[in-house]
Amino acid sequence: MGYVLTTFFIMGFGYFVAESALRQPLPAPRLAWLGFILGIVGTVMVVATVLTGHASVMFTFYPPLTASPIFYLGLVLVVVGSWIWCVLMLVAMMRWKRANPGQPVPLAMYATAANAVLWLWTTIGVAVELLFVVIPAAFGWTQTVDVGLTRTLFSWTLHAIVYFWLIPAYIAFYTIAPQAAGGRLFSDLMARASFILFLLCGLPVGLHHLFMDPEHSTGFKSIQMILTVLVAVPTLLTVFTVTASMETAGRLRGGKGLFGWIGALPWERPMVLATGLSFFMLWFGGFGGLINMSYGMNAMVHNTSWVSAHFHMIFGGSVVIMYFAIAYHIWPSLAGRAAPSVALQRIQLWLWAVGMMVMSMPWHWLGLNGQVRRVAQFDYADPSMSWWTPWMAVSLAGGFVLVVSAALFIWNLVSFHVERSAGVYPAPVKYATALHPDQPVPAALNGFALWNVFVLILMAAAYSYPIAQFFILNPPQAVVHRVDR
Amino acid sequence: MAIDPLSNARSERRWAFAMVGAAMMMLFAIVWASLSPHMNPPSNIENVDPNTLHIAGEFTEDNLGTQVDAKGRVTTRIVTSQFSFAPECVVVPQDMQVTFRFVSPDVIHGLLVVGTNINTMVVPGYVSQVHTMFDKPGDMLMPCHEFCGLGHSQMVAHVRVVPIADFKPDENGRVACAEH
Amino acid sequence: MNNPADTDPDITDPTLAAHLDEAPSGAFALAGIAVALLLVAWAIIYLFVFLPRGPVG
What's the mean pLDDT in A259-268? Predict the structure, then answer.
């Protein structure tokens, strides 16, 4: 789910942005379709092996557990499909820059290209892990696995991947929500700086997923902990800049005083509502994340339901609700007609936020009290676990609300195409204008060459020895454990 | 009248300083905890061969569980494997420094002790070592917290903390749950 | 840069100037409260859960 929903959504939204923000046709649409088909074929391979019980290793693999090679090859196809997307995004941006020399790239496209660059860097870790260690083991060519090495390579991917998922939501915060609310983007430069900070700080921090691991020293864990503290900064900047943008909208609509602008916002518009709900859940998700990243404090919550709660709040909540809102926002121009019912869209968004809160809040508390995650069932007869039962029931109720919301989301999109009464042909999607549209954009914030050099330096500092140690110390290997036969 | 194009940059700079300051405060608290009361993630890079650890050395069956050495140091050795802990119950003394040492002969496991800061991954090829001190007596749950296969949910152990007066090692320095 | 087609013709510079004399005080207040509460919540966990659970390492 984490790989498939996100990858397909991000590819689709990226293609949409490349055409609508740049106002030029997508380069090589056939290649884009090839990427899409690779993704579909890969997904079918993954789902088939998982559902037939040949790949019970979860999406983090956990070698030396080893699944059917078809499972890993399917994932490789999905990733290769997304690489095609990355290249097309960068080509689209470069073509536009050549046609408009000296002009800043529209923010939505700049951020999408930043995400493509981030994703290319991010996938290196998992690609090396799969191609050189896991897939040879899955085919039976090798009989042992260096577990520390595979965990470290996966950690390279593991954190930046969530920023890959998150950035489309931030693109909507910065470039769509202020426009939808009837205001202006408070600052185009701060938005660019935030996306660059995600690119820089999102990558060299993966070891924070391995704080509790025995194969890394406190030294490198601390370095990556400090970099992780820094990655909180772009989100904190975004909170202010987007709030200030919404404030311009509220004030233009007549809101007065310190908080009067909040009530003046057009909350009946799904994009505005989703942004508000997303920020609300971002607070809880960010809170959970701050505890997770706090080094020693990670020991309280590592691998507990707390982590599941954090992840569901920030990804399932803040990010996915923006995916919904983006879909509602761009569907009229894709389907060529206005939404049949905006009220149903609002209901769906509310159900999603309420369901996600009800489901995830108990997990924070249970996780802090030692409920571990990724467990099929608990022994509720054990007195130390029996008090979890009512909280789990609450959580389950939240889950049902989410199912209803997800079904309603699908209906809301289908209804664009089935209800003949749908209204007038809608105007094309617009992107937010900056408060000061003529502010010059420095060349550094209009390309990625400089930042790629910095990423390289940071990754070398953060990961060179943590990876090299496995070749220097040559730790004992573990025997492959097959789960597919 | 046009609005001052620099005013938004100024407010954002103020906000950015405040946010970096907030992040630094947290960083300071974390670093203090790791240096002063020594609250660090377990990180000893110590190798052990997962394929032979049950045959010879520290983690053979006789050596598992809690043991007090000649200098009075308390060490608890546990092997985590699909899908059980060996032993499934260990005894440790209250208010004394205890060292836990975990190994895995097969796949990745992990564990935590409910209500404490004890939490570590157990990665085949490595000894995971955690030092701690318990300040309350009682039976505490120690579940496996990393997916290790289809029997993962059944993998649970207990840590029994007893007052020092009740902590009585036998002639080999060993203490087991059966006697407590 | 803004594509001219994206710019809303109703929002002119004088309109902005007339409405935004108080901005971004509201954003400072709202985001400031949110972040302050975040730090307080973090400190509560740090002081009342993390430190009492004792040293490890």
Answer: 95
